[in-house]
Specification:
Oligomer: single chain
Distance between the termini: 57 Å
Low-confidence stretches: 112-138
Shape: globular
Helix content: 10-25%
Structural class: mainly beta
Number of helices: 2
Number of strands: 9
Order of helices and strands: EEEEHEEEHEE
Mean pLDDT: 79
Length: 138
């Protein structure tokens, strides 16, 4: 099956470990439709074929939200072979409400690191921003 890149978006937000990320999403022309492809660390996600580019991106956002990703926003950076840089506005993708009652699996998240330190800073510590990963210091 031939695949042609038609658009590329930047997708930003927080992963299931509550770490900020910003990664490209490729929208590929496949068959009679489009699919969105996302790579992040060891994760590779691709949607099924959708009728429109927008539907493929929306499905990818739903897939990521089901895995615990939140505060997602996207910005088109390539369209019709032209590089748009940051000329286009960011589009917010509201977090799902009324989802599953159990939190997403945090497998691979290291407690006491990066995202956890920001949340834990409310217990009286302060963030040390001078070197290395974020961490709480007292």
């Amino acid at each position: 099956m031939a695949r042609d890149l038609t658009e590329r978006y930047q997708l930003a937000g927080f992963d299931a470990c509550e770490r900020g990320f910003n990664r490209p999403v490729d929208i590929e022309h496949v068959g009679d439709g489009y699919r969105a492809v996302f790579r992040y660390e060891a994760e590779f996600l691709a949607t099924d074929e959708k009728v429109t580019r927008e539907a493929a991106l929306a499905e990818l956002v739903r897939m990521l939200q089901a895995r615990g990703y939140s505060q997602l926003r996207s910005q088109v950076s390539f369209k019709n072979g032209a590089y748009l840089g940051s000329q286009q506005p960011w589009v917010e993708h509201p977090d799902r409400t009324g989802g599953p009652s159990t939190p997403p699996d945090r497998w691979g998240c290291s407690d006491g690191y990066a995202g956890d330190s920001i949340r834990d800073s409310a217990i009286g510590g302060k963030l040390n921003t001078r070197s290395g990963p974020w961490r709480v210091v007292s």
